[in-house]
Each structure stands twice: as C-alpha cells, then as structure tokens.
Amino acid sequence: MTPPSLPITPALEAQLRGWLAEDIGRGDLTAAALVGRTAQAHWLAKAPGVLCGGPLAVALFRLLDPQLEARLLVADGEPLEAGQRLLELSGDGAALVAAERTALNLVMRLSGIATATAALVASLEGSGVRLADTRKTTPGLRVLEKYAARCGGGVNHRLGLDDAAMLKENHLAWSGGVAAAVAAVRAGAPWPARLIVEAESEAEAVAAVRAGADAVLLDEFSPEALTALVPRLRVLARERAAGGGAADLMLEASGVAPDQLAAYAASGIDLISTSAAHTRSAWLDLSMRFAPLLA
Amino acid sequence: MTPPSLPITPALEAQLRGWLAEDIGRGDLTAAALVGRTAQAHWLAKAPGVLCGGPLAVALFRLLDPQLEARLLVADGEPLEAGQRLLELSGDGAALVAAERTALNLVMRLSGIATATAALVASLEGSGVRLADTRKTTPGLRVLEKYAARCGGGVNHRLGLDDAAMLKENHLAWSGGVAAAVAAVRAGAPWPARLIVEAESEAEAVAAVRAGADAVLLDEFSPEALTALVPRLRVLARERAAGGGAADLMLEASGVAPDQLAAYAASGIDLISTSAAHTRSAWLDLSMRFAPLLA
Amino acid sequence: MTPPSLPITPALEAQLRGWLAEDIGRGDLTAAALVGRTAQAHWLAKAPGVLCGGPLAVALFRLLDPQLEARLLVADGEPLEAGQRLLELSGDGAALVAAERTALNLVMRLSGIATATAALVASLEGSGVRLADTRKTTPGLRVLEKYAARCGGGVNHRLGLDDAAMLKENHLAWSGGVAAAVAAVRAGAPWPARLIVEAESEAEAVAAVRAGADAVLLDEFSPEALTALVPRLRVLARERAAGGGAADLMLEASGVAPDQLAAYAASGIDLISTSAAHTRSAWLDLSMRFAPLLA
Amino acid sequence: MTPPSLPITPALEAQLRGWLAEDIGRGDLTAAALVGRTAQAHWLAKAPGVLCGGPLAVALFRLLDPQLEARLLVADGEPLEAGQRLLELSGDGAALVAAERTALNLVMRLSGIATATAALVASLEGSGVRLADTRKTTPGLRVLEKYAARCGGGVNHRLGLDDAAMLKENHLAWSGGVAAAVAAVRAGAPWPARLIVEAESEAEAVAAVRAGADAVLLDEFSPEALTALVPRLRVLARERAAGGGAADLMLEASGVAPDQLAAYAASGIDLISTSAAHTRSAWLDLSMRFAPLLA
Amino acid sequence: MTPPSLPITPALEAQLRGWLAEDIGRGDLTAAALVGRTAQAHWLAKAPGVLCGGPLAVALFRLLDPQLEARLLVADGEPLEAGQRLLELSGDGAALVAAERTALNLVMRLSGIATATAALVASLEGSGVRLADTRKTTPGLRVLEKYAARCGGGVNHRLGLDDAAMLKENHLAWSGGVAAAVAAVRAGAPWPARLIVEAESEAEAVAAVRAGADAVLLDEFSPEALTALVPRLRVLARERAAGGGAADLMLEASGVAPDQLAAYAASGIDLISTSAAHTRSAWLDLSMRFAPLLA
Amino acid sequence: MTPPSLPITPALEAQLRGWLAEDIGRGDLTAAALVGRTAQAHWLAKAPGVLCGGPLAVALFRLLDPQLEARLLVADGEPLEAGQRLLELSGDGAALVAAERTALNLVMRLSGIATATAALVASLEGSGVRLADTRKTTPGLRVLEKYAARCGGGVNHRLGLDDAAMLKENHLAWSGGVAAAVAAVRAGAPWPARLIVEAESEAEAVAAVRAGADAVLLDEFSPEALTALVPRLRVLARERAAGGGAADLMLEASGVAPDQLAAYAASGIDLISTSAAHTRSAWLDLSMRFAPLLA
What we know:
Chain A is α/β, with parallel strands linked by helices. The first copy, chain A, contains ten helices and twelve strands. The first copy, chain A, has helices spanning about 10-25, 55-65, 95-125, 140-150, 170-175, 180-190, 200-210, 225-240, 260-265, 275-280; strands at about 40-45, 50, 70, 80, 85-90, 130, 165, 195-200, 215-220, 250-255, 270-275, 285-290.
C-alpha cells in the first residue's frame, strides 16, 4: 500500500507558524541563555503505538532554525515500541527548546489517534469492512486528524461540509421528506459529490434507497437488524437501477461500540464509521531528550 | 468564588471564524435547502460532566446568523447531568446545521477537560493543595484548554513560554549550573516573571532554592521522598531570606498518577501539576436536537 | 428548482474586506468631501444578461456603512433586461463611492459568467445532458465563479483538488497504468470521493472502466466517436458490476466548441464540461447612478 | 524601453499562497501516488499572444517545491506564437500537478489582458497618444492586471482610490460645484496627488479647467466634439497659468470603442482610457505537458 | 476648511483588533472581577495640544463592547487645553479597562504628532508655504501618522513608494544620469504619478528641471542659496514648457531646522517637508478616569 | 551580562512583511530601473546613541532579497558614535531601496528608546535600583519597544495584561476593597502570575500589603514620603509572612521625573518605572549611503 503522505503546503505551514506563536507569545523567557549554541536532541517513545506527525515536528523546528539537521527514524504510520528512538535533531539550542512543546503536543495527539485507529482496524481484519472516521475532530486540526486516521489504517469519511452531502433527520423533516430533500441537494451540489442519507429506522433506510441515495448511514441498528436489512437494501438498489436510477449503494454503520466491531462487520455492511479514535483516545507518550551542549 | 469568565475578544473571534471555515470549506452542500427557514434546536448532555464552552457555541452560531436567539441554561463550570438540556437556539436553519459540528466539537473537547479536571480536583479536596495544568494542550487551543482547567476547578500553570521562566535539566546543563542559569534568565526576564526550576533529585532541588528560584518543580519524587524534602527546602528558603534573598518558595510536584494525588497532597507541597485532564480525557458526549421547522 | 444560495460566511466576508482594501488603499482621496452625507443610488443593467452577485454588492456596501439600506430588485440567477434597475441603495455618501468600483467589478464579472453559462445551457435544453464548469477560474474567485455557473443553470464539476480525484494522462503514466493508479488513489482518498479518469482514446476509456473509475472524461472525441463508444462503455460497466465492481458510470465530454453542444448531447453522454463561460465571456455591463444628495 | 518588472514582494507571495490553498483545499487527492517522484514538464502556447505572468508561475511551483528547477524561455511582455514553448520545469511530481491549474489560470488570464492591450495599443501606433487602463479589474488582481496592461504596452491609470483624486458627476453635485469640490479635495489630499475631473459636457470641461484640475477625463464625446474642444481647453489652461494657476493639463478620452481609437487619437487628446482589455478579453490558451517520469 | 476625516475601513479595523490582541494576549488577568459590570469613565488632557485619534479610541472600546456608549467632546484637529475633558464612555467595566492602555497609547502618540505639526505650521503662517510630512513614520502607523499631520494643519507628502516617484542620488547614479532615470521611471509609472527629483546641488536641480521633473526636492540648501536658485528654476520650467515639456514645477525644501522655517519660507519655495513632528515629538499626555461603578 | 537577544520568530517575521507592504503598497514606482542590479550600501550613525534593531534591518532587507549579504558591525545594546558605520549591505539594488525607509524607521525608533533608556539607567548607577518600562508603547511594537528598553539597560515591567495582574484604583473600588479584589484576581490568575497593587496613599499601600500583594506600585509619592513609608511596608510584609502570608514584597515608584531618579533611588524602593524613554524620546538619527553601482 502507498504510505500516507503529508505535503507541508503553504496553508499547513501557516498553521504551524501560528502554533509556535501561541506558545512563544512575546518571547521565550528561558531560552535567552541558549541563543547561538548548537544542541543535539532526540525523541523517544515512552509507550508503544503508531507514529503520526513526524514531518510536522521537523517542519516546526525548521521554522525556528532553517539550518536545523533532522533525521526521522520512523515513518508516519509505522509502529513504535516503548523506548524506541524516532527522531534526531541538531541545531540552535534556543530554537530546539522553543519549539519542543508545540511539536510534542502535536505529534502526541496525532499519534494517539493513529494508535487508537490501528487498534480498531485490527478488530476488523479479514472482514473486508473498512473503518471510517467522522467530522468529530478538534477545531483547527481537521486535515491532520483525518491524516492520523489514515496513518492508523482507517479510511476518511467526508472531509467537510463541502465534499459530500449528508442528509440527517432534520434535513429530511424540513425538506418535505427524503425524496424532496435528495432532489433539492442534487440540484445544487457538484456532480461528483456523493449524497448520503442517515437512517434511524428500516423505513427511513428504504426510503433513502428509493430516493436515490448513494449511501445510507445506518445509525444505532443492532447487528441482527443490520443482517436482515442489508440484503433487502441491496435488492432495492438493483430494482432502482433497473428503473434507471443509480445501481451502487454503500452501506455504513455508526453508533458501534469498539468491542462490537467484529459483530457488525459480519452483517454485510461496507464500512463502519466511528469517532472513538478521535474523542476517546489518550495522547501517545513521547519525550524529547537533550544531549550535553556541543558549543 | 468568582466564576471563570471568557470574553470573546477579537483574537478569539478570529479563531472561531477560522474553525467554521475549516468545516464549511467551499460551502455546506446539504444546507442549501434550508436557507431562510427558521429552526429551533437544543443541546443535551448524554453523559454527566462539567460544562465548558457554552458562550463559544453561542458565538459560533451568531457568526453565521447574527439574529440568532440563544439561551444558555447552564453556566461554564457548572455540573451537567445526563439528559440535561443546556442550550436553546432559534434561528436560520442553514446556519444552525452549518455551525453544529464545529460548536459541538469545541464544547465536547473543552467539557471533557473540565470534567476530568473536576475529578482530579475532587481527590485533593480538603488538602489545601491546588491542582495545576501544564503546557500540554492541543495546538491552537491553549487559551481555551487552560480556561477549561479553570472551569474544572484547577489553577493554571504558566500560559506560555513568555509569562514565567522554567529552567529544566538541559537549560541548567547548558548554562553552567543552576546559579549561572538563574542569573542569566533573571537578567533578561521582566521583573514580575517568576522563575521556576525543575529538579529531579534532592541535590538539584537544594541548589535551585539556594540559587534563588521562586518555585521548584519536583518531578517524579515519591510521596515519602517529598515528605522528607519539603521541610528541608522551606528551611533553606528561610535561610535564603535571612541572607537577603527571596523568602517565598512554591513547591510543586509533577509526575503524579491520578490515584496518588491524595498521597502527594499530604507531603506538604503547594500544588500538583498534571496533564492528565488534557491528554487522557474523553470528550463529553453532547448532542444537538432539532425541533420541527417553524417556517 | 431551489434557487442558488450564497451565505456570506466568515471566510467570504474576509475576502470582501480584502477586496475593498485593495481599491481603497491608504484612503479614498476623493471621498473626503462626502463623509457624513446621506446619498441614494441605484444600479442599472446596460445590457441584457443573468444576474449573479447581488448579495455580494450589498455586503460590500454594508462593510463600509453598516446602517446602509439596500433593496435588491432582482435575485441571482434571474434574467436582466437592458435598462433594468436591479439594486437601490441609501446610505453614507463616502461609503457608497468608496465601495462602488469593487462591487461593480465583482458583480459584472460574475454576471458575465452566469450570462454566458445560460447561453450554453440553452443549447442543451431538452437533451437531458447537463453543462458542467471546470477548475479554470480566476485565482481567488473559485467559490464565487462556481456559484456563477450555477446561477446560469450549469452544474459544478469538482470544486478543487480535494473533493474528487481525477487521473490524467501523466498520473496514469507515472503510476504504472490505470489499474495501479486507480488502486493507489482509492487507498488514500476519502470513501465518498469519486474517481474520474480522463481518456483521450477508446483504449484508455475501456481501461478506465475496467479499472473501476466512477466517471470517464472523454476529451476531444468527435460526436460520432462518442456515439459509438458510449454504449460500449455502458456494457462494460454492467460487466464490471457483475464481477463485483461498481455499476454506475458517469460519462462526460470535454473539448467541445459551443456550437457543437447539441451534437455532442445526442451521443448518449451524461454531461459536457467546458470552461468557455469562464475564460471567454465578457463582463456584463452594469452601472451605478447617484441621485442628488439629500443632506 | 525598460521591460516591466514584477518583484515577488511579501504581499504578492501571500496572495500566491492563498491561491494555491484555494485549489488544493484539504489536500490533492490525486497527487498522492506522485509524491517524491521527479517530473519534467513544459508550457506551450496554443494560440498567439503576449505573455504576462511567467515569474508568477515559477513562484507558484516553487512554493510547493523549493528545489524546483525552472527556465522561462519568454519574458513578460514578449510575443508568443502558437505552439511556442515558454517554460520548462523539473521537480517533484506531486508539486507540479498540484500547482498546475492555479499557475495556468493566473497566467492565462493575465496574458489574455496583455494580448488584448497590445492589439489596442497597435491601433494607436504613431499617434503619440497613450492607451490607459481603468480600475475595472478583477477583485484581488488589481496589481497584477495593471501589470498585464503594462506588459501589453499600455500605461496605467491610477492604481486605486488613494493615489490620485477623480471627481465624478456625483462628487461635483454633492460638493456645491466643481470649484468647491476641487478645493475640498486639494485640501486633504497629499500634495503629489493629481486631481482629475470627469466631464460629460463642454461646460463641465471648461469649469474643471478653470477650477484647477490637473486632468480632465472627457467621457463619451464624439471625435469631432473633442477636436473642437481640446484646443479651447488648452487655451484655458494657459490663461489659468497666467492667473497664477497650474499650466499643465492632461486631456483623456473615455467611452471609446476599440475600432474608433485611431479617430479619437487624432483629436489632440493625450491619452485614451478603456477597460476593454480587462472586461472583454478571452484568456490566452496555454497548456502544460508532462514528460515521462524520470524516477 | 473641511476637517480631516478618518473612516474606520475594514483594513483599519483589522489593525485595531491586532493592537488590542497585542496588549490583552491570552486574557486580561485583572479584569476578571469586572465582567458584566457597567462603568463610566472619561478622558482628560493633562497638557495642551491638538487632538488626533478620538474616533479610533471609540472604535477600540466598541470592539470589546459593541453596546458601549461614547461621546466625543472634541473633534480631531481641534485644540485641547490642559484639564479639558474630551471623551465620555459608559459600558462594560472589563472592556473599558482592557482597551484603556491601547486606546491611550494610540491617541497620545497621534496627538503628539498633531500638536508638534501645528506648532511648525504656525511658524509658516501667512507665508503661503505649506508644511509637508515625510515617509519617516512608525512602522504599521503610516496611514494614521499621516492623518495626524493633517490634523495638525500639515499637508501629506507621498503616502508610500507607489503613489509618486522620487529619484534620489543613488537612483540617478545607477540609471546613467537624471534624464535617463526620469525617462525610465515615467515609462513604467501610472500616468497620474508625479515624479520628484531630490537635488543636493544647483547643478542637480537644473538637470532635474530640464529632464522633466514635476517637482524638485532641494535638500540642505541655505535660505540664501534657495532665494537665488528658485527664480532660476522657475525660468527653466517656463523654457521647458516652451519646448513642449511640462510647465508646472513644485519646489520643496528639506533639511530645515524648526527655527529656520520662516527664513526658508521667504525663499520662494512652495513647501517645506520635515520629519520633526514624527521623529522628535513627545506623546501628548492624556488620562482616563473612572467614575464609581454603577452596578 | 548576557546581551539581549531577539530571535526572528514567525510572528515577528509576519510583522516585518506587513511593514514592508505598508510602504511598498502596489509597487515601488522608482525602483523599476534598478531591478537586477547589484548595489552596495552602508548605514551610518549621525548622532551618538545606543543601537537597537540591527538584526531587524537585516531581516527586512532579506525578505526582499534572500541572497543579500549583510554584515552588522555593532551589536544591539552597544553604543554608537556619531559617524560610526554600523551595517554593510550588498544585494539587489531594487530591494535595497524598497526596504530602506522601513528599516531605517524601525531602527531609528528603537534606538531612540534604547538611547533614552540608557541615559535614565545611568542616573541610577550604583544605587541597586532598577529602571523598568511600562505598557506605554506604540501599538504594534510592544515586543520590540520592550526589547529596546532592555538594550538600553532597563528591565521590563509586565509585557501585557496577561502575564501579571495589576490592581488600580478603579479595580479596587469596583471589587469592594483591596482584600476582596486581591482574592478575586488570585482565584482566576495562573499561579505564577504576580499581583501588583497601585497605591496613591499610605493607607492604600498598607492595605495592599496586608491583602497579600506581591508588589506595590507607589505612584506620585515624594522621595521623603517614600523614605518613611518603605521601611514600614517591609515590616508589614514580615508580619504578613509570620501570619502565613507571602514574605516577599517588591516596592516600585512611578511618577518620577528623570531628574529626580537619584533622589528616589535613595528611598529604599526596589525599582522605578517610567514611560519617558518611550513617550518623550527622539528617534536616533541614522542614514543609509549607497556606493556606486557594481553592475
């Protein structure tokens, strides 16, 4: 598989600059004595997990010391063992201590998500069902926390409100039913945008397929209910295609507890979406150690 | 006690605008059918906890609908029960759905921190020892995640690298020892800035007090070691004052597991700092429910 | 049909502020004498067309005079006749003259696109084939120029590089063929993202369908070639579905001259994409007229 | 003649970053497979014209790949033939495809303006009359579209509301006549700022000269009317100078159709201003071609 | 005379927001106890001077409290006596104290410039010679410090590098002499831009006029030298006009000590430019006083 | 002593970019003829003083010419003699002239502050009393003007509203007296933040110490009054400590005229704060000289 990639685009670089400014404020009071002295440091994992954000750490240090030498020993998406050294740095001492906390905070948070995602993905191994994230991400970190999910082996759900349409209960109620709502959204959305309908009952799911949904998000169904419902919806999709509508239908389950992933995976759905890795994971414990000063 | 306050300053408002833009991107594809229709909604707690960020949610919705009517039923820092209604909203339907996810993400994260902080603070009740946070906060959320700690009953440690100086192991090594390091930092720092020294051994702690530190952060000592060390350091501070130095000395413990808080509190220290509420807490589960459309 | 809507989001408002600043620079030298005087003005169409951007004009004037009274007489997407009055304004004279040029420039450009799009769409009337735009838009105006295409009756193609994937000749060559390229992109893209392949020959189109493309962009084929190719591709899609692949297939033509739209529409394709309305249209001629000053 | 120059100032670079972000959004989904592979490409003109924006294209690519090698074969302001190669690029494949559309959109728009301007300027050749642009430019592109006019051989009119004052009909009406308006504006404007008055009748033109205007913009006069009026205004200017006023007077015609330029040029005016090259020109057709991947 | 005006444009408002953020940082620690309490305050002049920036102060307070009531008792450009009350405020107590320092700093600096300018202008009274400022302004305050000069009765010189051209010694040397330099700059500059040449000797001044300069800045000449030179240059300008060149010529002196203004004014020049009011003035002493709290 | 240091952080670099844009605007009209020509220049002091901002000047020039060669001959905080050369530059001629004014303006202002501060500090030499600045700084220049005070040998007072709390008369009145006010602020402030109380009478000073203030700012007391009061307050602080409160107490005088510094220093206070160096100093006169062009 192609490993995840994360180009440091101008927009991302602007965020990195802002995060450094947030911690440094009007100047690092403690670093004053270190200006101009070259220092060496490395990062250690203090617990096992999956790395995410290594290139971001390097970019943060480089923003304060463009001449910094950095060597990433572990790629994003790869496993880390407790005690493993993952990054080596050499550069201006004041820059290293000024960016240290920001860099660690970012990579610890992202690696925590990647680690938790990898554990969830492992529960689905062999099932052919994919694990998707949600839009429950920390404000300001959407792109990076979605990237973390990919580093953990998950697949991203829509990235924002603008790359796919998702009709929920209130959209349907307000628009005069699912058929009208689907038509209204299709009319204004870009043609490549998929249209997903969230269903909380069998009747809603059936109506969504008939109305032409590309995907149905089946929320808080039991595994048994899904096992019965999924084949029925697939039949409806074939009937829909025969009538000139779309043939393909993606079925997604949500509201699934982590320990039930395998049970849901057996129901015939295509993917399971969960925010657990983003809303209930701990940061991965990483540490930065300095070598004695060179000069 | 004065409840925590959170003015929506221009700088904070700019962040809120950016977070909305992050989710909305090039436009909410699904909201198209809801433009111009007035909707009513409310927020529910799905689990017990401590609220943090209510005024931020209101501000986010108002950025998309300046005429929005909002009523906060619970103040920041107050407890929430599962099922409790905390916020009522009435305004443009498209604005409500476009800001929903961003507002929930922010308040769920902050309330998770406040809830976890409150639980830690409860362990210290009656001890007279305060619970402080750290600089381990999500990039971009420093001010708000520090506010969340206050909502949970904690006290903030320094806000950034510029409002207090903290000398760690590497600063000391690089500067020729603690006395030289303290002198160098004092010379350049604003006079009101406190100077804290992190000590990992008794010898370092003693040297820090002698060098004139305002506070010593005692990292990864056992409760027993602290019980022995603290009185000795207080004596040294009195001696220091007698010699013309500062008399006051704040003693802080770190590296304390949540279930050991009470044991550490009995050691005579002044405060305990921990990142647990920020790096190991789950988001508080909140939900937004829409009423049938009015028009 | 639901008319196009354009909420003035915080991100859009920031652009409007920037555009005013671009023209005003260090201050409007001529407006000095008009400060504090209430003025009335209206906008006239000097040529027939389709309006796009009315609410943007109002928002621009309001940024300089929050108390401005404005009345839009024509909605975006509606036709304008030469001489028709479309907007009435009353407010601070200095604000009206300072925002005049920026507002006119924006609405004239957008209405030019809407007008040209409407003419192209008219050529396809009754064919069931939709007219799509492209990513050839003026830097900085992507969202608005895409909105203008909708105002003219067109449908938007992807909005940027992040809401759908499109494999072009070079992607295919670099990735070891279409099957490998499709697999690589699918692995990293969000699951709702559609995957489009651009084909310049029958062989490429066939390979794209077999590799699982959701859509094929058929570039610079003749109408006759398309008429022969389209049914064959649809058969291949059914075979693909029978083998467990996706069943749906969108076929899109590009490289079509405006006077050939009807001929291409008869070939069985689903939509035609063209940049003509964005790269070869004139601005719609609009004018702002002032009434004598009131005070 | 000194060729036009376009330093990439910090302000311009910030715009370039924003335009890349506009297209890339949350990440280029298709480029994932190309990261780290070196690619070669070149740009071709598909139609004849005048180039404008070459250095901007290079700067855009370099923002995504600082190591990019670029060779501009044609300078801004020089003519292009159909089929001519104008730019050669070698660098990271993912960067080349991610910046491709933004760079082409910008250079195609600017070259379209330069090309149209050059055609208008050619109509005036030998007349000694200069062709000036206007403030009808695309929002956000003022500086660049003014530069494009220079690349086409035109001269810029004022750059914004702050570098010269221009009194129009409404200014005059509101200020109690041209003399009062001129006095009010002169009092507050920087001394180097020229003061232009727009006149729609002979009487207004005469009043403007008497009131001390540095220039009169004669709008929608016929060539014959101008031929009669111009000498009279020059006499008035000499009389004005004799009375202690300014002696110099610039006379400018506007509202001139492109096919009438020569006729107007013969009337004795100094320059003709027109927005035609900015509001009625097509983008110049350019294309980017990739060579087979190197690695 | 029309009093100076200062619209709070979006660009200026953005600066005001940034200046508040600079002082407030991560939050006003002292204001916590004042949130939600209405307070009344007023501003007093503690020394005589000329007010500049009153509307900026009001705008700053309103950014923190949109409901603030403010009454300006003195207009910008008007004189202040020691002890005079100039502004009355009523609003949220926390907002008043949080914006107090920023607002005072800005208005004290600007009023210091206005006051110093007024004193210099008074030296020229009756001479018909105007006093101009320079580009020596505090970084970030160009527009406002130029406005302050107008409030003091001065006239602005060019506002930046883009609204007029000024050839200095080095430009001339590098371009092959004044004639070549003038020609090169004229070719690329907007037609309304004036071209000024700085001359440090009689020969340079003569060459500048012959080369077609609109103005000559005569730097560090004695009053006697100017008295002899000015008529000669005016004659040259008339000869230039007779030869088809520009007739008007503005003559400006610089390098003039404040106590020599009257002597220079008698030399026949048109204006004197000086940075003294911006680089050698004290801030005007203003103070904010609070009334006892209402609630 | 460690010399002051000033890392060019991302936040500071963003300000430098903005200041260049402020002067350059839409482009340097005069520099056109100099593009691509290498030039050499140096900076001279025209008056004696203390340098502040040398690295900022270099950074400004480098933003326009990344290849610029610069050599600083004098470090920040060091004395300058009239006529002394302090900076040598070699780079693109157009970049040098475009950044010249901005760089000089910044360094002249900052060096003026450093020079004035050094003179005040000299008055205190040998007294053991330190000279502190205030929050009276030019909007936008807080960090740099505080740095200038350090370059002159002063110590910084608090940097903003968020790094220390200072209770003034109105805070005290509004909060129900000094004890209540101190308690309210302590409860919400970070624990390292010092709490200062401003006192205008002996009674207020006494109350402040009793309430637990870390420091008392004694405003507009006479030297004699201070000489009597200071020992009394120190006694109170010892009593406070005996009762379990803080032992340390910093005593600061304000409202001191420059010629009275020595008299106040003898009163037993710890430091004197004054805004004189920021609000009543002239810019240090510096000049940039160009060598003849090389190419």
